[in-house]
Specification:
Number of strands: 12
CATH topology of the largest domain: Nuclear Transport Factor 2, Chain: A
Number of domains: 2
Distance between the termini: 37 Å
Strand content: 25-35%
Shape: globular
CATH class of the largest domain: Alpha Beta
Helix content: 10-25%
Order of helices and strands: HHEEHEEEEHHEEHEEEE
Radius of gyration: 18 Å
CATH architecture of the largest domain: Roll
Structural class: alpha+beta
């Protein structure tokens, strides 16, 4: 783990895990301090503004996003954090004002620690509510390790890849819920969960257009976060779209809740 992972000797807005303090630091207009903590070798990605690396570009990108957050009267309510072997994932609800309406935007922040002690921070959230597709991403470096996924999550992912709606729903508890990219809940008991996945996985030809490819995993036993990409491009997109699924385990051994940070639901 990196020396400053808990934010030692940092301003109050930067004390804590990087994934936990990133948005709050920008809202507090502490982008310069955040850039210094990230360091010269960092890579950041923000869906509305794209990727940046190198201190000059990082400072510019943080300033741009920070100004946007302040202009939109943004506040951040932090949710749970999953601490993994090589990455932390924090869930945040971002409240802001856009186009004369209030928006509650679910956001997942991934702070990944590289083998050479470099940091990558990636935000995942729907961008279509703001009238644009996700900005192009920097191609991922190929890593020589397999992403280990626990059996319960692997079963869910396998059903998604097959487009088997019944099998996907069967991985949930009887009261299980999926939360889409706009924060809308789809519960199993009412049948909304089955309908949600049927719409997601089966196009007008009955084929599966949404096949998540695992890019990274964080699992603390209680919850599991899977960062993924989908290879199929939507109109206006020039690079694969990425997202995060956060699995909350129930006492039954089945999934209690899945929160999806992507364009799904829009």
């Amino acid at each position: 783990m990196m020396k400053d992972d808990e934010g030692d000797r940092q301003p109050s807005s930067l004390r804590g895990r990087l994934a936990e303090v990133y948005l709050q630091a920008l809202i507090a207009e502490a982008g310069e301090s955040l850039a210094k903590r990230l360091g010269e070798r960092a890579l950041i990605y923000q869906p509305l503004f794209g990727a940046a690396s190198g201190m000059t570009a990082i400072r510019k990108a943080l300033k741009q996003f920070g100004d946007w957050l302040v202009e939109h009267d943004a506040t951040a309510k932090r949710g749970p954090t999953i601490v993994g072997v090589d990455r932390d994932v924090t869930e945040v609800t971002l409240s802001l004002r856009h186009a004369e309406r209030n928006i509650e935007l679910p956001v997942a922040l991934v702070a990944e620690r590289g083998r050479a002690r470099e940091i990558a921070v990636r935000l995942h959230h729907a961008s279509l509510p703001f009238g644009s597709p996700q900005a192009p991403r920097t191609p991922r470096k190929v890593v020589d390790r397999e992403h280990v996924v626990a059996a319960d999550v692997a079963e869910h992912l396998a059903a998604l890849r097959l487009g088997d709606v019944d099998a996907v729903v069967a991985t949930f508890e009887s009261s299980g819920i999926a939360v889409d990219g706009l924060g809308q809940e789809h519960d199993r008991g009412s049948g909304a969960l089955h309908k949600h996945y049927a719409q997601l996985l089966q196009n007008e030809r009955g084929a599966n257009d949404w096949v998540p490819i695992v890019l990274g995993v964080a699992d603390d036993g209680r919850g599991c976060s899977v960062e993924y990409e989908t290879a199929k491009l939507s109109p206006g997109e020039t690079s694969p779209k990425e997202g995060v699924m956060v699995f909350e385990r129930g006492d039954s051994g089945l999934i209690r809740k899945v929160r999806i940070y992507d364009e799904i639901g829009y």
